Amino acid sequence: MKFEDRGNSITVFPQSADGFEVSLYVDENRDDPFEVYFNGWHEAFSDPSDALESFAFGLSDECRLKEHYRGESAYKWIVESNRDGDWHEYGATGLIFSRFWKSKTVKIKQNRLITGGSGNE
Question: Which domain holds residue 43?
Answer without folding.
Answer: 3-109
